[in-house]
Design goal:
This protein is 38% helix and 17% strand. It is of the alpha/beta class. It has a seven-stranded parallel beta sheet with strand order 3-2-1-4-5-6-7, with helices on both faces. Strands 10-9-8-11-12-13 form a six-stranded parallel beta sheet, with helices on both faces.
Length: 382
C-alpha cells in the first residue's frame, strides 16, 4: 500500500536572491519538520546562488525567466509548472507575485495564501489605489494573508480593506546560535590596516538599493568625522551588501573624502562574522516590513539605530535596545550616533538588552510552527 505524499506548498516569488523575504522563506523550508509538507519554489524571474542555501530534501526550484514589463507568456509557463506539481497550497509573496493567484484558480484543489513582507519603493506608504484595488480584487482567492509585522497587518485591514479574520501576523525568527557576540580579533576579516583595537565600527547589512537608503548613513557618518576630525583615527563604516546603488555609494564615499574610513565588502556569506566586527548597527531604510538584519544584529548583541518606519518600532525601542530616528534625516541620525559614541558603555548595554529580546520573542521554531499551522487551517477549512 502506497503512503500518500504530504501536501505540497508552491511558493511563488519574484526572484530567489539575497534579501529578507528570501531568507525567511529558506529558513522556513529548511526548518520545517520532514514529512509534514513538501515544498517547491517558483521564481518568476530567476534564482541566484542564494538557492544553494536551501538544504531541505527534494525542494524543486523553477525559474520562469519573466521578461521586464508585461511578459504574458509567464502566465502560461507558470500554469504548466503548477499543473505538473499539483500543489495543495499556492503561497505568493509581495505585490510582484500577487496576481499569480489568478493562475492558481485554474489548478484543481489548490488554495491560496499570500504574504506581505514590505512595501515597494514606488509605494512606500501603501496608498497606491491601483495596488490596493488589486489586493481587494484577488482577496476572494486567498484563504489567508500573512504579514511579518503588525504595521502591515493594520494596513491590510484598515487601509486596503481585507477582512480581519483572514489576516495573520507572524514575526520572522533569528538563529541566535549562529548570530552571537564574538570577542575574537576583528582585524582578521577586514582589509589590512582598516581596523585596530581602538576602532569603533558603525555598520549596516542589506541590499544596496534606494529603499534601504544607505546614502543617508554615508551622509551621517561624514557629519560625524567632519564635526570631530579626531574621530578619523578610530571611526569606521562598514556597508555590507550589493545591489544597483553600489556604484552610487562608492562615488558618494569618494566625493566626501572618506574612502579610507569605509569598507564595502559586497554580498557575503559570513554575515555573522561581519556583524561581530560592528559596535553599532544602523538601518536607514525608507520603508521596512520586519528587518531580518535588525534581528540578526540584535542577536549579535548590537545596539540598533533604525528609522521610524514600518515594523521597525516593533523591534527597536528608544533607550531599551537602541533608538529610532526620522526617515531620511541624516542630521538626526548623526546626532543620535554621536550620543552613542560618547557613551560606549551605555551603548553596549543596549546591545545586550537587544539580544535578550531576541531570545524571548523571535524564535525560528515558533515562526515555522505558526506558518505550518496556517497551512493546516487553510487545508481543513471548508
Amino acid at each position: 500500500m502506497n503512503t500518500p505524499k504530504p501536501p505540497l506548498v508552491a511558493h511563488i516569488i519574484y526572484a530567489l536572491g539575497t534579501g529578507g523575504l528570501e531568507n525567511g522563506l529558506v529558513n522556513i523550508i529548511n526548518r520545517a519538520p520532514p514529512g509534514r509538507y513538501r515544498h517547491a519554489i517558483i521564481c518568476l524571474t530567476s534564482a541566484s546562488e542564494f538557492a544553494s542555501r536551501v538544504t531541505a530534501d527534494d525542494v524543486a526550484i523553477f525559474e520562469l525567466n519573466k521578461a521586464p514589463g508585461h511578459d504574458w507568456g509567464v502566465y502560461w509557463r507558470l500554469l504548466k509548472v503548477l499543473y505538473r506539481l499539483r500543489p495543495a497550497i499556492i503561497h505568493t509573496r509581495n505585490l510582484a507575485a500577487l496576481e499569480m493567484q489568478a493562475v492558481g484558480l485554474l489548478v484543481p484543489g489548490a488554495r491560496g495564501v499570500h504574504g506581505e513582507h514590505g512595501r515597494d519603493i514606488y509605494d512606500l506608504d501603501g496608498s497606491n489605489r491601483r495596488y490596493q484595488m488589486l489586493r481587494r480584487m484577488l482577496s476572494p482567492l486567498i484563504r489567508r494573508f500573512i504579514t511579518v509585522s503588525q504595521d502591515l497587518r493594520h494596513w491590510l485591514v484598515d487601509s486596503v480593506g481585507i477582512e480581519a479574520s483572514k489576516v495573520v501576523q507572524i514575526y520572522n525568527g533569528v538563529d541566535s546560535g549562529r548570530f552571537v557576540p564574538d570577542a575574537r580579533s576583528r582585524r582578521e576579516l577586514a582589509p589590512a590596516g582598516f581596523l585596530d583595537d581602538a576602532s569603533v565600527v558603525i555598520g549596516t547589512v542589506g541590499r544596496l538599493a534606494e529603499v534601504k537608503n544607505q546614502l543617508s548613513l554615508v551622509e551621517a557618518f561624514t557629519r560625524l568625522v567632519d564635526d570631530a576630525p579626531e574621530r578619523r583615527a578610530t571611526l569606521r563604516l562598514l556597508l555590507v551588501g550589493d545591489g544597483p546603488l553600489r556604484d552610487t555609494l562608492r562615488a558618494a564615499v569618494s566625493d566626501k573624502g572618506i574612502e579610507d574610513l569605509v569598507w564595502m565588502p559586497g554580498d557575503r556569506s559570513d554575515v555573522p562574522d561581519l556583524l561581530a566586527m560592528m559596535d553599532v548597527f544602523v538601518l536607514p531604510s525608507l520603508a521596512e516590513g520586519i528587518s531580518n538584519t535588525v534581528l540578526e544584529a540584535m542577536a549579535s548583541g548590537l545596539p540598533v539605530v533604525a528609522t521610524n518606519t514600518g515594523g521597525n518600532p516593533e523591534l527597536v525601542s528608544d533607550d531599551i535596545n537602541g533608538y529610532l530616528v526620522p526617515v531620511n534625516d541624516s542630521a538626526a541620525l548623526a546626532s543620535r550616533l554621536q550620543l552613542m559614541l560618547d557613551d560606549l558603555e551605555r551603548t553596549r548595554a543596549l546591545g545586550a538588552q537587544g539580544r535578550e529580546i531576541v531570545h524571548q520573542t523571535f524564535n525560528w521554531d515558533r515562526t515555522v510552527d505558526r506558518y505550518l499551522s496556517v497551512y493546516d487551517e487553510v487545508l481543513t477549512a471548508k
